[in-house]
Specification:
By secondary structure, the chain is mainly α. The protein is built from 27 helices and no strands.
Length: 630
């Protein structure tokens, strides 16, 4: 009896749901075009990173080779973007990676994904609001911060020095805008994004007009001249070896890892699947176009910056305004400041827009409180989820100094990227409904055939093992079956485990590995051998031929590369960040095991009697809930 209850409880944790929208037509308004989604993705992604990140990376990590860093980071981020694009074509809906992980990995993992996404969006919204407030404060000569610190000074550990009422009001104002409707929010985002792109175009053109190609070929003599003429306005950075790649290949890799976060944010497009006019086409197009626009902008601005100013003289906190002063274009500083505010505004809207959509999707599935899934009749927006998430973000922006919590935002994002890549890898090899029906007929025919004698089977166990391995590497059928689907699922789980161990070795003991330590080298070599072998087995399995508007190319290599990169970046997080993440997950597990697991829609469906025996048969098959393309 106890074992049966434990098994039933375990089955609840791994229940999957279909990718189709529950109840047919969505309750949300379909009002977003492809250009709206592109503006949302570009606005969310192309924020403060291009205005600040480019200067910090160029000065201390890469020099002029920052353009290569952005290229490598963009190509790396495209791996995740392509996976999101396929899922947008396969199953557009609110919830993004939460929905995808629910359909492939199971309910508990889906809750973890959704809960970490909520954390990421809340911290992201609050941190951008604080950056907006700081930008306004610096433009007014820090007058606002001095007044607030003198009147409402806080002396509490882990809190800000003073309550930021400006950030509070800004987040609440944009929450009200989101309540009005998705089309209104998209219009405002489009305006800010267009202004941001205009300013970046101005920076790009001015840099190439006033730039000097010699700044990509600096020498020790140029550095000494700059040091002798320094006015102590800002300190000089290191020279390195000079030239185009002053800090070597290692500096390019470290810079690319930092620049990766300049492209994070495109995933908000996938949360608008239930509000797009033609989501199967517009979501893949929106993701690909937004990533391309962001790459061109980052590449152009970083090239213009390093051509305008010697990389060791770049101001890390405000590189573009200081570059305007360096070339003698003082009025351009105000233009860049206006572009910074537009970028922060679009980033704030881009961070706040998907937050209530994830909460709405989880509440609609019963994993969060059902009241959060209420949709306003007129605006057709998840109004309760929008107000609750906006209030939480406003509270954090008011009281917390979020510079120490920004890494938490990365954990949720990278985990979501990894799960989407895993889902694409698994679902491509699962049979559709029609294929499963054909397979049932094949099983019935097989059952009629006489079984071989037991003695002959027992006499050749080695031959049986070789046949099993041969069948894995050379499948008989050219269409996926449940057997092949389960094989891919098991191999994918094994690959995730192997890649996690490999990333842990690379992140924690890189010096031992590259110095030729026998233990680390042998372990890494064995892991690579197993990874390549398991990947080959997956590659040999037949794929589902169902046509989609977009499919990830080079399966299974590209999804596995995406998982590897995301896992490696997650391993770079500090123990303190993982401890903070653990506290957030404890709160989430209390909600899930206290409410969500008992009120899940899948629990209700399990308790309802099946309409027919064929439906029961499909439900009892482990992969029966995998969707089929339409």
């Amino acid at each position: 009896m106890l074992c049966q209850r434990v098994c039933q409880f375990g089955q609840k944790l791994v229940r999957r749901r279909p990718l189709e929208t529950r109840g047919g037509e969505s309750c949300l308004a379909r009002c977003l075009s492809t250009m709206d989604l592109v503006a949302l993705g570009v606005g969310s992604t192309l924020g403060a990173g291009v205005y600040i990140l480019a200067g910090a990376v160029a000065k201390d990590k890469a020099g002029p080779a920052i353009v290569i860093c952005f290229l490598v980071a963009a190509l790396t981020c495209v791996l995740s973007g392509l996976c999101y694009a396929e899922f947008g074509a396969r199953a557009p809906g609110s919830g993004s990676s939460y929905l995808y992980s629910y359909a492939t990995v199971g309910q508990l993992c889906a809750f973890i994904t959704g809960w970490t996404l909520i954390l990421s969006y809340v911290i992201g919204s609050a941190s951008v609001a604080r950056a907006w407030s700081s930008a306004i404060d610096s433009m007014t000569g820090n007058h606002m911060s001095r007044v607030l610190q003198g009147s409402f000074s806080l002396h509490v550990p882990n809190l800000a020095q003073y309550p930021d009422f400006f950030s509070l009001g800004l987040v609440l104002l944009l929450t009200g805008l989101l309540v009005l409707g998705a089309s209104e929010s998209a219009l405002v985002t489009k305006i800010f994004t267009d202004m941001n792109l205009l300013v970046l175009s101005f920076v790009f053109l001015s840099g190439f007009i006033k730039g000097d190609a010699r700044h990509w070929q600096l020498t020790q003599q140029d550095y000494e001249l700059a040091k002798s003429g320094s006015n102590d306005t800002y300190s000089l950075g290191p020279l390195g070896s000079g030239g185009f790649v002053p800090f070597g290949f290692d500096g390019v890799l470290r810079g690319a890892a930092t620049c990766f976060y300049a492209f994070v944010g495109f995933d908000c497009i996938a949360t608008a699947g239930e509000e797009a006019h033609h989501p199967q086409c517009s979501i893949p197009l929106g993701i690909v176009i937004s990533l391309f626009v962001c790459f061109v902008a980052c590449f152009g601005v970083s090239a213009a910056l390093t051509l305008t100013v010697p990389y060791y003289q770049i101001h890390p906190d405000s590189p573009l305004p200081q570059a305007s002063l360096y070339i003698g274009w003082t009025p351009a500083r105000r233009v860049v400041a206006a572009g910074t505010l537009c970028a922060l505004s679009s980033s704030l809207l881009g961070a706040m827009f998907p937050m209530p959509r994830v909460i709405y999707a989880m509440a609609e599935d019963g994993l969060l409180f059902r009241g959060l899934a209420w949709v306003h009749v007129r605006t057709r927006t998840p109004i309760i989820a929008t107000i609750v998430s906006g209030t939480l973000a406003a509270f954090m922006a008011l009281l917390f100094e979020l510079s120490d919590l920004v890494d938490l935002m990365s954990i949720g994002t990278l985990l979501a990227y990894s799960l989407v890549a895993f889902s694409v890898l698994v679902l491509r090899y699962q049979p559709g409904q029609d294929l499963r029906k054909n397979e049932k007929t094949e099983v019935e025919i097989t059952e009629v055939k006489p079984e071989p004698e037991a003695s002959s089977l027992a006499s050749v166990p080695e031959a049986g093992n070789s046949k099993t391995l041969k069948s894995l590497c050379n499948p008989i059928n050219t269409i996926p079956t449940q057997k092949y689907g389960h094989t891919v699922y098991g191999c994918a789980l094994l690959l995730v485990l192997l890649l996690t161990i490999l990333c842990l070795i690379l992140a924690q003991w890189p010096s031992h590995l590259f110095s030729g330590d026998p233990l680390c080298t042998t372990s890494a070599g064995l892991l690579l051998l197993l990874i390549f072998g398991t990947t080959f087995i997956i590659w040999r399995q037949p794929q589902n031929p169902t046509p989609l508007n977009f499919k990830v190319p080079a399966l299974p290599v590209l999804p596995l590369m995406s998982i590897f990169v995301n896992m490696y970046l997650m391993m770079q997080m500090t123990p303190r960040t993982w401890a903070q993440f653990g506290i957030w997950m404890v709160i989430g597990f209390a909600i899930y095991f206290g409410y969500g697991i008992w009120h899940s829609v899948e629990t209700t469906n399990d308790q309802q009697p099946p309409a027919s025996s064929s439906q029961t048969a499909d439900k009892n098959v482990p992969s029966a809930e995998f969707p089929h393309g339409k």
